[in-house]
From TrEMBL:
Entry superkingdom: Bacteria
SUPFAM superfamilies, sorted: lambda repressor-like DNA-binding domains (SSF47413)
Protein name: Helix-turn-helix domain-containing protein
UniProt cross-references to PROSITE patterns, sorted A to Z: HTH_CROC1
GO terms for MF: DNA binding
Residue ranges occupied by any HTH cro/C1-type domain in the UniProt entry: 18-77
InterPro entries registered for this protein in UniProt: Cro/C1-type_HTH, Lambda_DNA-bd_dom_sf
SMART domains recorded: HTH_XRE
Amino acid sequence: MRLRKQELGDRNLVGARVEAARKKKGMKQKELLAQLQVNGVDMNASGLSKLEGQIRFVTDVELVALADILEVSVDFLLGRAQQ
């Protein structure tokens, strides 16, 4: 497992929760990317890494797709609810 080279950013609220939910499901970033593409969200590995590192903004379409794929609520990803 590679460690993050950059410090966490402040461009989104969901990155850390996306990463935690993905890891809880035992899903690799590559698998999440494939599921995103199946759901019509075009994102590359760098984009996902930056999203999880809170360095990149998240669109509403991406947020909904991530919640569906990770089987969590949008409110959970936004930090407004517990899982």
